[in-house]
Amino acid sequence: MKRKLAFDVAALLLALVVSGSSAHEAARPAPITIHSVSVNLPSSAATFPPGPGSDIAAKCLICHSAGMVLRQPALSQAAWKAEINKMRTVYGAPIDETEVDTLTVYMTKVNADQQSH
């Protein structure tokens, strides 16, 4: 009886080891291939006009040309604030929370000035 019990325990341990390794194998993610991508962004000679907040707006140039930002349709201050916060939270724009209000006022003014030209 002791021999049968020892055999059953050994078989159970072997089954656990085998099933554990196959479960571990199944959990391993498939290998991925990494390759380089080249992106050509449109150039723009436009610059942000001077004023309180232009230094913060310069951070937008990491992803956008000044011309692209300056050609946006007229947006309200609330809409600019929402856009700026989306860029921060969704896309990781390096704009500190303490800079949002200054940039919002700046972009609202610059945007309105561009619409009047």
UniProtKB/TrEMBL annotation:
SUPFAM superfamilies according to UniProt: Cytochrome c
Keyword annotations from UniProtKB, A to Z: Signal
Signal peptide region: 1-23
InterPro entries recorded: Cyt_c-like_dom_sf
Descriptive protein name: Cytochrome c
Species this protein is from: Dyella lipolytica
